């Protein structure tokens, strides 16, 4: 059966997702065939992008793999927005900590749907002061690149070394408590949900 180029791309994506989820679930083709009440030959054709799937077939595949039908289309829209920031070229921005010597370098921002993510490279030097009272909506993730600092979140305290990570609810008061080995650089990524503020 001849297919249009767009259909072939869709078949290849579905083929890749079916194989990916089948292997992740440690299912053989025969086991998935039993779950979906399809023949092994048909499943082989699907995994090799040699046939188009009907909606009912997609539904059976998704149920057999334990995933939503939409998961089988992941990767169809290849054209997505991306932001590349060369080293040292992030935009310098002002935050509450700027007034106490914290340097913030924005590493890009994408706004997709109702969500937003903000990655910052934060640098603390001899000129920086501690400022442990940041509070904001969303979830924040820290990853230490250089130096050592004690970081507070609520009543908890964490001594962070290079390679250490910390993720927390941004509504809890947080920030550096003590700067132990300077200079300190850490990556801060804040994920804002649909109703979060900037």
TrEMBL record:
Residues 18-72 form the HTH cro/C1-type domain. One of its GO terms (molecular function) is DNA binding. GO terms for cellular component: cytosol. The keyword DNA-binding applies. CDD domains: cupin_XRE_C (cd02209), HTH_XRE (cd00093). Signal peptide: none annotated. Keywords: DNA-binding. InterPro entries: Cro/C1-type_HTH (IPR001387), Cupin_2 (IPR013096), Lambda_DNA-bd_dom_sf (IPR010982), RmlC-like_jellyroll (IPR014710), RmlC_Cupin_sf (IPR011051), TransReg_Diox_bact_type (IPR050807). PANTHER family: HTH-TYPE TRANSCRIPTIONAL REGULATOR (PTHR46797), METHYLPHOSPHONATE SYNTHASE (PTHR46797:SF1). This is Transcriptional regulator, XRE family with cupin sensor. It comes from Frankia torreyi.
